[in-house]
Structures are given as structure tokens and as C-alpha cells.
Amino acid sequence: MARVSFFGRYLSQIPPQGLVFLMVLLTLYALLFIGILRLLPPPSEQAQDILARINTSLHLPTLEDARLLREAAIAYSGDSGGDGDQSTGVPIPIIALLSLAYIGMMTFAIPGSLSLSILAGALMGANRALVLVAVVSCIGACCTYTMSYTFGAALVTAIWPQRLEQFRREVEARRGRLVNYLIMARLSPVPNTFINVASPIVGVPLPTFALGTILGTLPNNFAAVSAGERIGDMTSLKDLYSTKSAIALGAAFLCSALPLVLHRSKSGGGRRREDDGDLNNGKLA
Q1: Which candidate in 91, 128, 163, 244 could, as Cys together with 80 as Cys, close a disulfide (CB 3.0–4.6 Å)?
Q2: Beta bridge partner(s), residue 91
Q3: Could you give the CA distance from residue 61 to residue 126 in angstroms, rounded to a whole number?
Q4: CA-CA distance, 169 to 22, in Å (whole number)?
Q5: pLDDT per residue over 33-52, tens digit each?
């Protein structure tokens, strides 16, 4: 009963235009997804045979599942002939479906975007997949931002009242360097979902939010697409942590943190302990 009363109070606070916005968004998303599916030719027997070997019971995805899914997608790409992207060999509708699924997962905080990042790396290679994942993850985060701005303030305030107030104080204290702060927040243990829904409520501008999201998620995205590129040669999950992978991930981390380093080198280290202390002490976690 307590859970029902909680959501009842929340629903009563949603403005009618918020519900209309959500219904329109879901309808457009479903129609677009169905439209792209209709553009795809049916898979060949080879692709169907590979898909049939995937364990469909409820379990955590394994390395073998990911490898079979990659083989099925590659087989399907070969079946589609010349309709694919010339730079990747992957049919454009498959790239569109992958992108749309990623945006939907990010928008509604559905687990599984990491698996799609790995699949993108397996199909397109690390470099092209990194660009795609960076764009679609940013779009998904911005959609969450927009929904929270439109009608989500009541729910966010009800779920995270203390965390939201703390986030508001930290944003107000860093108005002149919000991009740097958002980058560090993305790299810290602060949940990305909270950052997405709380940012519009505390007054983070959308362009600043988008830039901080792209740069702050770069290391994790790079690690995922790089793993996907090597998935055909991997024998176990331990292969993800090779020396080459660690060096590449460190380089991606430095690229993300570069704006923060440049800002601090100009303004001095007076506030460095304050920023790092807030995030590392878990004030938002």
C-alpha cells in the first residue's frame, strides 16, 4: 500500500502536458522501431542457425552469447548484399536499430546498453563504434534530461530529496566550470541516471550537460567498443584486461579529463581538494 500511495502522489503531481509528452514520445519511438524493422529482409538459414545456438534462458550474458550474436549479425550483413554502410559492411537498418535501441535504453534507464556498446564494437570496429556510441548515448541522456525537465521533478524530489539538494549546492558552487564538474561526476561512482534526471532540476543548461556527458562517458564507451572489436579473438573475460587495453583506456581517461586539467592549471589548485573530496567522499553516491 505504501508503494501504491507513493506513486499515486507522484501521478497526481504530473501536469497533463507531461503525460501527453510521454505518450507521444513512446508512440513515435514504437512506430520508428517498427518502421525500421519492416525495412530489414528476413535472416538467412545460416543466421537463424547461429541464433538458435544462443541460450535463451534467463541468465547473465556470457562471452559465448556475445560471440554468437556477433556471428549472426555478420552473417545477416552478408545476406543483405550492397545495402550496407560502405565503411563498415553493416546494413544501415541494423545500425539504425542498434542506435534506436541504445537511445531507448538510455532514455528509460533500462540495463543493457553496455552489451550494445560491445556489439557495436564487434560489428563496426572500435573507432567507428566509439563515435556512434558517443552520439547515441548523449542523445539518450538528453532525452532523459528533457523528460525530467518536462514532468519528472516531483518523482526525482520524492526519491532523492537529500541527494538532489546536495547536487544543487555543488552545481551552484561551480557555475563557472560546470563542464569540468560534470566530467568528474561521470567518472565518479555517482549513478548516471541520477545525473541525467537531476541536472535540469538544478539548472544545468542542456548544451553544458551534453558536452559533459560526451566527455565524461568516453573512457567507459571506449573500453566497451574495444572489447567488442576483440571479442572474436577472446577466450575468456580476462582478455579484456590486457596491457594494451589498459594503456588505451588510460589514454581515453586522460582525454576526458583534459578540460579539467587545463582549467586547474590556469586557475591554480586552490579548489582541487574541494572538488575531489566531494566526489570521492560519495556525497552524491
Answers
A1: 91
A2: 84
A3: 21
A4: 30
A5: 888 888 777 777 777 777 77
